[in-house]
Write a structure and sequence with these properties.
heterodimer, A: 251 residues, alpha/beta, Rossmann fold, 2 domains, 7 strands, 17% strand, B: 254 residues, seven-stranded parallel β-sheet
Chain lengths: 251, 254
C-alpha cells in the first residue's frame, strides 16, 4: 500500500539534493511526478518522472510549467516549492543583481508558482514550501537567504489562511542537510574538517540531516494523513535549534 | 527626578546577583524599595527576611507591609535557583525545590501582593523567566522547565489581572555575569570542564552577536523600564535580553 496512490505532484528544483529526494520518495509512494530545474533533464531521473526545464524566477516559465503539468498530470494534488538559491553575503556586500537573483527564485518564484497552481489544484491539495531554520534565527553572512526564508514562512501561513479548506499549505524548515549548499558553507571555514566536527557535536541526533530526512516529512504532509495539518512550520534539524547556541563544551 | 519617584517596590531575591542591581537602580530612580531574600548580604536597601516557598511568610509579610504602605506599585519576582543536572541525576527533592522557589515562589508572592497592588494607580509585576524557557542549555533540565512554567504563568496573570490595572511581564535573560552563571560553567552538565567564567570569558563573548555577555545592570535597565509608567501599554510579554544570542542559529566554527 502506497501513501500517495492516485496523487499527482509538481516538485520544483528536483535535479539534486532535497528536491530530488522528494521526487524519489513521491515516486516510491505511488504518485505521478513532474519536476523541473534550470538545466536539461538529469540523466539519472527515473523514466516515469516528467522533466520540464524551468527557471522559477521567470513568469513565462511558470506559465509553461502549469501547462505541462496539466497536460501530463491532469489535476495537480501536490505542489512542492523547493527550488532555491543561496548567496553567502552580508547586506553591505549584496548587490541589486544578487537581490534579483536570490529573491527572484526564493521569494518571487515561490509566490508565482503558488499563484499559478492554486486555482488548478484538486480539492484536498497540499502545498509544501521549503523554508529553513535560517528563516527563524539568522545564519551569519546569509542575510538575503535568511530573509527570503522568513518570507516563505509568512507566505505559507497566508496561503493556508486564504485558501483553506481547498488546499493545505505548510513549510518544512530543514536544519543542516548534507547537500551541495551545506558543503559550500563548510568550504568557507578555515578548517572545514574541524568545522564539520564542531557542527556535528551540536546535533542531539548525532549526525547531519540527509535529503531523505526531509523527503519523509514531505510525504507525510502530502498524504491524507496530514489532512488537519495546515499553516505550520515544521522544523527538522536533528534537535539543533532546541539547544542554546552557546555550548561551553565546544569552546 | 527619577522615573520611579513616589513608587513602592518589593523585590524577591533582592540581595542576589540581579536582584541587588535592581534594588540599587530602583532607589536611584526614587522608589521606596524592600529587598526580600533569605540573607541580608550587606544590602543598602531596607531588608526583609523572606522565604518565597512559604505561604505563611508571604501572607504575614504583606499583612505587615500593608501597615506602612498604602499601595504596592512594583513587584519583582527575582528569586530563583538553578540545579546543574539532567533529569536522570535530579532527585525528586531537587525537582520539587526548584519548582518551589522558581514557580511556587512567583505564585505565592504575587498572590499575597495582589491586595496592595490593586491600590496602585498603575501596578507592574515583573517575573523572571529565562531564554532557557525557550531553548535549552545542557544539564539544566528542571531549571529550563521551571522557566517555561513562569512564562506561561506570566501570560495567565496578565490576562487575569490586566482589567484591575496590573501589568505582568517576564524578563528572560541570557548569559548574565552572576554567581549563578559561574555555577553553571563549573557544573558538570555544561561542558565547561570546571573552568571559571574568567577562563571561558572570550569564548562566551565571541558567541554573542554583541560580543559580550550581560551584567546585572543590563537586566536592571529593562526591569526599571517595565516598572515605570512609560511601559504602561506593555503587558503579558516575555522580554528576551541576551545580547542577540538566541537570534542566531548555532554558531558553527567556520
Amino acid at each position: 500500500m502506497t501513501r500517495l496512490e492516485n496523487k499527482t505532484a509538481v516538485v520544483t528544483g528536483g535535479r539534486q539534493g532535497i528536491g530530488r529526494a522528494i521526487v524519489d520518495a513521491f515516486v516510491r509512494e505511488g504518485a505521478r511526478v513532474l519536476t523541473c530545474g534550470r538545466g536539461s533533464r538529469p540523466e539519472d531521473l527515473p523514466i516515469a518522472v516528467v522533466w520540464q526545464q524551468t527557471d522559477v524566477a521567470s513568469k513565462s516559465d511558470i506559465d509553461d510549467l502549469l501547462v505541462a503539468a496539466r497536460s501530463e498530470l491532469g489535476e495537480v494534488s501536490i505542489l512542492v516549492n523547493n527550488a532555491g538559491v543561496q548567496i553567502e553575503k552580508t547586506v553591505l556586500d549584496t548587490s541589486d543583481e544578487d537581490w534579483d537573483f536570490l529573491m527572484g527564485a526564493n521569494a518571487k518564484g515561490l509566490f508565482m508558482a503558488c499563484r499559478a497552481f492554486i486555482p488548478h489544484m484538486s480539492v484536498g491539495g497540499s502545498i509544501i514550501n521549503i523554508g529553513s531554520i535560517s528563516g527563524n534565527t539568522a545564519d551569519p553572512g546569509l542575510a538575503l537567504y535568511n530573509a527570503s526564508k522568513a518570507f516563505v514562512h509568512g507566505l505559507t501561513k497566508s496561503i493556508a489562511v486564504d485558501h483553506g479548506p481547498a488546499v493545505r499549505c505548510n513549510a518544512i524548515c530543514p536544519g543542516w542537510i548534507m547537500t551541495g549548499m551545506a558543503d559550500a558553507a563548510f568550504e568557507l571555514a578555515k578548517d572545514p574538517d574541524a568545522a564539520k566536527q564542531d557542527a556535528m557535536a551540536r546535533h542531539p541526533a548525532g549526525r547531519f540531516g540527509q535529503p531523505s530526512d526531509i523527503a519523509v516529512m514531505a510525504v507525510w504532509l502530502a498524504s491524507d494523513e496530514a489532512a488537519f495539518a495546515t499553516g505550520q512550520l515544521f522544523t527538522i534539524d536533528g534537535g539543533m535549534t532546541a539547544a542554546s547556541p552557546l555550548n561551553p563544551g565546544l569552546f | 527626578m527619577g522615573i520611579l519617584e513616589g513608587k513602592t517596590a518589593f523585590v524577591t531575591g533582592g540581595t542576589g546577583g540581579i536582584g541587588s542591581a535592581i534594588c540599587r537602580r530602583f532607589i536611584k530612580e526614587g522608589a521606596d524599595v524592600v529587598a526580600a531574600d533569605l540573607s541580608e548580604n550587606g544590602t543598602a536597601t531596607r531588608f526583609i527576611k523572606y522565604d518565597v516557598t512559604s505561604e505563611e511568610v508571604a501572607k504575614g509579610t504583606f499583612e505587615e507591609l500593608a501597615k506602612g504602605w498604602n499601595k504596592l506599585d512594583i513587584l519583582v519576582n527575582a528569586a530563583g535557583i538553578e540545579i546543574e543536572k539532567t533529569i536522570e541525576d535530579t532527585s525528586l527533592e531537587e525537582w520539587n525545590q526548584s519548582f518551589a522557589v522558581n514557580v511556587t515562589g512567583t505564585f505565592l508572592t504575587s498572590k499575597y501582593a495582589l491586595p496592595l497592588l490593586r491600590k496602585s494607580a498603575g501596578a507592574s509585576i515583573i517575573n523572571f523567566g529565562s531564554y532557557d524557557g525557550f531553548i535549552a542549555d545542557p544539564g539544566l533540565a528542571v531549571y529550563c522547565a521551571t522557566k517555561g512554567a513562569v512564562h506561561a504563568l506570566t501570560k495567565a496573570m496578565a490576562c487575569d489581572h490586566g482589567p484591575e490595572g496590573i501589568r505582568v511581564n517576564a524578563i528572560c535573560p541570557g548569559y548574565v555575569d552572576t554567581p549563578m552563571l559561574q555555577s553553571f560553567f563549573t557544573g558538570e552538565g555544561s561542558g565547561g570542564d570546571g573552568k571559571s567564567l574568567d577562563e571561558l570569558q572570550q569564548a562566551v563573548r565571541d558567541v554573542h552577536p554583541m560580543r559580550t555577555y550581560g551584567t546585572p545592570d543590563d537586566i536592571a535597565n529593562l526591569v526599571n523600564w517595565l516598572a515605570s509608567d512609560e511601559a504602561r501599554y506593555a503587558s503579558g510579554q516575555l522580554w528576551v535580553i541576551d545580547g542577540g544570542l538566541s537570534a542566531q542559529v548555532q554558531q558553527m566554527k567556520l
